[in-house]
Amino acid sequence: MKNNMLNIKKRKAPSYIGPLIALIIVIIIVGLTTDRFFTPGNLRNLMLQVSIVSLVAIGSTLVIIAGGIDLSPGSAIALLTMILASMIKFLGISAPFAIILIVIMGALLGFWNGVLTAHLRIPSFVTTLASMTIFRGFAFLFNNGSPIFSISDTLTEIFYGKILGIPYVFFYVFFFFILFSLIMRYTELGREIYAVGGNAAAARFSGINVKKTVVMSFIFAGVMASFGSVLMAARLNSGSPNYGVGMELSAIAAAVVGGASLGGGKGDIIATFFGASIITIVHNGLNLHAMPTSVQNIVIGMIIIFAVFIDMWRRELGDIFSRLISRRTKS
Amino acid sequence: MNEIKELLWELKNVTKVFPGVKAINNLSLKIYSSEVHGMIGENGSGKSTIVKCLSGVYQPTSGKIFYRGNPIVIHNPMMACSLGVATIYQELSLVPSLTVAENIYIGRLPRKERFPFIVDWQEIVKKSLVILKKLGIDLDPLNIVADLSIAQQQMVEIAKALSRNANLIIMDEPSAAIGMEETKRLHEIVLNMAMQGYGIIYITHRLDELSVMDCVTVLKDGEVVGDRAKGRINVKEIVNLMIGHDVKEHYPKQINQTNDTLLTVSDIYTKKGINGVSFTVHQGEVFGLAGSIGSGRTEIGHAIFGIDDITDGSIKLQNCQVVMTKDKFTTPREAIKCGVALLTENRKYNGLFMNFNGVNNVSIAKLKKIVHRGILDLNKEEIFAKEYIDKLKITPTAVEQSVEFLSGGNQQKVIIARWMFCEANIFILDEPTQGIDIGAKVEVYRLINDITSHGKGVIFISSDFEELLAMSDRIGIVNKGKIIAVKEVKNINKKYLIEKAFVNQV
Questions:
Q1: Domain hosting residue B481, numbered range
Q2: Model confidence over A122-152: pLDDT tens digits?
Q3: Measuring CA to CA, which residue among A287, A256, A286, A297 is closest to residue A274?
Q4: What residues have CB less than 8 Å from B173, skipping those under 6 apart?
Q5: For residue B227, is it within any domain?
Q6: Are B57 and B94 found together in one domain?
Q7: Domains in chain A and their CATH numbers?
Q8: What is the ipTM of this complex?
């Protein structure tokens, strides 16, 4: 029993602790340097801003953990908002049913990426780069390439609705992050995704269906992109072939800032939420300081490099840190 | 040429401390020219730390290094190189797509005298030939390195070291990845180099290589526990020095063989070069497969395990809980379900998950065992895996730590634990003792006994014919994708295996 206690104490800190600390530091800095950060209006605004990219980033993180990369969700969002808008506005399909169809289509888009990657053995960077242009191309086929405005007033409620003052989106984000971190931690599939990303050859020799696992990671990514597209369409009450430009990169950035390794096998869903939040809050802080977009972009870029640097040299930095401390205590 | 031995390098009371461990402790060592200096010790005994101190990768925490009698600090690998230290690591540092000559002179290609920005290709080939000849290596400098065998690539590494005017060549387990014939050839070259005045540090696990050494230093836990000059090298004594206590039997073979058939392989063919292989494995039996690298011994394992598709012939497994739909396995998943396990030849490449700790590495091939209503029971997983970690005497740090940081022996035992966790009936062990120290080897042998004592079967593939003869009940000799003979071990000896396995080999 005592032995057990010791083991529990020795247990390593979960991998989202680092990004969480970084997030807290960012919140403190932005909170102290601006007077509007902690206003309910700003916090609610932040929640709305982080929601779409963080949901999409769940999918990107899964694909990255499985050893791939997904460049297509931004275009998938554009295509799916166009389909959603067409279905509701032109075909008169009810919103809930249309949303279900959109999620299925999102899964199919992911399936397409997954099959090309896993079965034709084309690197995912290439397949999803192609999908990125293909999906956006299809998006422009709807409504002669023009955006579809004022889809339906009930749709906007999905994004802007509140219960007891808390926006609905908070619950979506909460639900999906908890769901996927449970999937990754407590299901066979989750474990297999980590295994395939860590060492695909060893995974095969351990009886894992590597292709199926890769396809599943892309299907999840497609599904999360479809939820992103529903929120996007609801937010602006429109569909547009120009939505989601650069979204795939923001989602990947969130995963990377959250500590996911593009080498595969490493990453944490909750940490991705912290990564997405860090990026959104830095944007918000710079906005509150009236910094131009150009500066914001530069800062975000630096944060990505810094995050990866910390992650890569964590052990060495830890050594240096502990040496500094031990020297202090000696003298 | 240079028959007088002179003192090249001396380590005096060198200690190297890493956070939490003393890798080498107050160690003194002398290295002479014209001498093959053997270095033997278990994993973690400090061999590679010594090498890294000499090649400028690490700085000793305390103690001094002398070069030709003068104290010196080797700041970095460049400096070690300029002092004439060349290290040939197990992972070779050649560029596969370039030629032999280009690899030898890479980074300092000779230029034409009149046009210093143009590479003098003729000169490179000429110079490379001189070096290769000096070593007695028969290789075309214009061959592409990727087309060479591992052994030949090693030769290129050696040539590269010599071309840099090295005087000390450190070879880190050069024989680990090459076959028996090639090892012999390597020994000739090593002796030839020593004759020509080079100092050589030869690191190995294999005790059958003691004959090539002029002196041996036995290391244990970062200290020298024995120093033996030629003529006083005794295998048994060295084994005892390495392990630190008397091992009564190097090979603790238990006979558990029965007459009940467990696996029947009938006349199988694959596209990977298996041409009609048949054999049976009985319950409690160790069936050895002897053959050179490339003979098809590994591919037989792959065919049974469902990695390579069997185009003709069949496999039959008794005691199989799942009904086999075909007379072969089309995926490893099916094979595992029916109780077949395969420990692969290269644990880093297709065995270990470096992103997982020991526990997750153990459970990965049969997650079903810890699934309760679709959910992984992580407590159960840890309890199960710990049981095997204890049983197999794997270091307890494996529970929390990534397997990346475990020694080779512990890594290998983690994978054996994986298959024991799967409750496999047939264990295909492909080079299970490769690159692990002798203490860990003995533990692997004990595990083989443990497996067979439960009525399970082992297919044992090994390049080390001595261990193969000692641990198997019967041996099948594999040559060119066929089993050319199956013999009871009591009726054959090492000489017979070598003759049969290497006959007709080019």
A1: 255-339+456-506
A2: 999 999 999 999 999 999 999 888 999 988 8
A3: A256
A4: B90, B203, B204, B205, B435
A5: yes
A6: yes
A7: 39-309 (1.10.3470)
A8: 0.85
Total number of domains in chain B = 2
B337 touches chain A (CB under 8 A): yes
DSSP type of residue A205: H
Contact in structure between A38 and A49 (CB atoms under 8 Å) = no
User: Given an 8 Å threshold on Cβ–Cβ distance, is A201 in contact with B355?
Assistant: no
Nearest to A188 among B337, B342, B367 (CB): B367
Task: Annotate B421-449 with three-state secondary structure.
Answer: HCCCCEEEEECCCCCCCHHHHHHHHHHHH
Are B221 and B263 members of one domain?
no
Which amino acid, one-letter code, is at B396? P
Q: What is the CATH number of the domain that holds B83?
A: 3.40.50.300
Best of A3, A9, A205, A314 to substitute, by most chain B Cβ atoms within 10 angstroms, is A205
Please tell me the distance in Å from B260's CA to the nearest CA on chain A. 28
Residues sharing a CB contact under 8 Å with residue B153, sequence separation 6 or more, in sequence order: B92, B94, B145
Is some CB atom of chain A closer than 8 A to the CB atom of B355?
yes
Q: Does A67 lie at the interface with B, CB-CB under 8 angstroms?
A: no
Asked if residue B361 belongs to a domain, the reply is no
* Sole residue written with tokens 């009525």: B455
* Closest chain A residue to the Cα of B381, Cα to Cα: A186
Do B224 and B314 reside in the same domain of the chain?
no
Last residue of a domain, one of B217, B243, B269: B243
| B65 and B156 inside one domain | yes
pLDDT band for position A59 (cuts 50, 70, 90) = very high
Final residue belonging to a domain, choices B215, B243, B271: B243
pTM, two decimal places? 0.79
What phi, psi does A174 have (nearest 5°)? -55, -50
Residue A208, amino acid: I
* B63-76 pLDDT, tens digit each: 999 998 899 999 88
Minimum distance, in Å, between the CA of residue B54 and any CA atom of chain A: 23
Same domain as B181, residue B284: no
Q: Which member of B354, B374, B400 has the closest CB to residue A199?
A: B354
Instruction: Assess whether B77 and B110 both reside in one domain.
Output: yes
Tell me which of B229 and B304 has the higher pLDDT. B304
Nearest CA in chain B to A191: B364
For residue range B218-248, what is the model confidence (pLDDT) as tens digits? Answer: 888 788 888 888 777 777 777 777 766 555 5
The answer to whether position B376 is within a domain reads: no
Choose the closest CB to A319 out of B19, B344, B366.
B19
